[in-house]
Amino acid sequence: MSRARSNTLNTVAAHAALLAWTAIALFPVFVILVNSFKTRRAIFAEPLALPSEASFSMVGYRTVMQQGDFLLYFQNSLIVTVGALAFILLFGAMAAFALSEYRFRGNTLMGLYLALGIMIPIRIGTVAILDLMVQAGLVNTLLALILVYTAQGLPLAVFILSEFMRQVSNDLKNAGRIDGMSEYAIFFRLVLPLVRPAMATVAVFNMIPIWNDLWFPLILAPGEATKTLTLGSQVFIGQFVTDWNAVLSALSLAILPALVLYVLFSRQLIRGITAGAVK
Amino acid sequence: MASRPRRHIAVFLAPAILVYTAVMIWPLFNTLRLSLYTTGDAGRVFAGLANFRTLLGDPRWSGAFWNALGNNLWFFLIHMAVQNPIGIGLAAILSHPRLRFAALYRSAIFVPTILSFVIVGFAWKLILSPIWGIAPGMLDAVGLKSLFAPWLGKEDYALTTLALISVWQFVGIPMMLIYAALLSIPEEILEAGEIEGLTGWSAFRKIKLPLILPSIGIISILTFVGNFNAFDLIYAAQGALAGPDFSTDILGTFLYRTFFGFQLQLGDPHMGAAIATAMFAIILAGVCVYLFLIQTRMRRYQF
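Predict the joint structure of the above. Result:
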């Protein structure tokens, strides 16, 4: 009897703690989204109230649409993220296959060389990266960002993918070899389809930091034509600090794509983390 | 096998090695090299350790450097003292086998982690702003209005406030990693403990905690590297000057200002490289401590 009661108590306490932190985690997002749909007066008078018929207003969104080039920023972010992910996955999978499939001299060394980049952040090299991009004429291009994010994502991608490729059965690959498939065909037609779940995990891991990065867009591609959504909203909000409607709407517009991506991929992300892919 | 042509190995490796070497490793070492040069009348001149002597010896530079390093250390300590215990606590509750809605809580608590620093910085700036009045209004509702201060604008509180905002954002990561570690503990071990009379808190402390120590080591080093390389949140919330009066300046913002310049001071790539080298040394030291002192001494349990 007392055991059952203490169990109920424990359950209530557990839910209370989790609910409390969930509220803390979601509160700022809620406040921003709700207030972006209200008139300036309502934003200040009742910041926690939902928009009513009287207080509903889209004026902030109109300002954002007129002033900021958000569609262009969004497109830039999309190109950079998708481009970098494509290179990370293709190059990463190829290198992971070479390291996990073949025994050759320098294999371990090569693996260690690539693993260096897992712990050392690429930002440390920024001074020389800018130098390099200036010499290559890539400043203010999206390609510069794609290259940097590819280099940043490759080490972990190779590490995770080669773990998974070791598990692909040797019989399958040898059967392919006996059938006269080239090593390239074995990689593209036999191995890649089998490690698709691992590829998805790598993609989701890399997506969020690339999409949200502020440092490299600020340094390598601050031009109007190449601003990413993160940098674009940062600059926009900085200019409109006193226009609360515009700031709240711009923040909401920046939150939206991240939330959509998260809803689409959260299962993949959480499975990736809990599968111990980063251990 | 050895007689087969092995060109394909090179083809498979080349793209990754090339991009990684050209864009990451080479610039990293080039940055370390550039820290030994300075801009003279005829362009780049070798200067030996002069930049580091300036950074550590010249009072105009050393004050800013030690300030940024000290702030960075405080930033890290707050994460270790607040973020990781909360993350472990949430994970411990979530891993309870019969808890309902666990997936829902997990997803909701992870939401801040996916938002960009720009959103997080500005959102909290607005919420804590005395002009808008959300924070003072909520404190008023529980009778604590006297506690309110414009935290982000006060030298004494701004850095701690920002660190706590960062904790709010990233608590999902230790939560997930510890959660995964807790789930991988086999049921038999916990049952054996139960027979010995270990349940609840004592089971957590005596059985689970030792088993998740390796994961705690991993989140510690991830936190360390992430914090000593942080920049975005401070820049988004307080600008490149890391105000008020540099009280929130950390190594990342210090590097950015030095490299790019601000207001009347011109940017200096060589001093920037020197600061980046110092950051490299700090991060490398942290990683080495982790690899050689912590990881090797930690016992691994195989199930």
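The radius of gyration of chain A is 24 Å.
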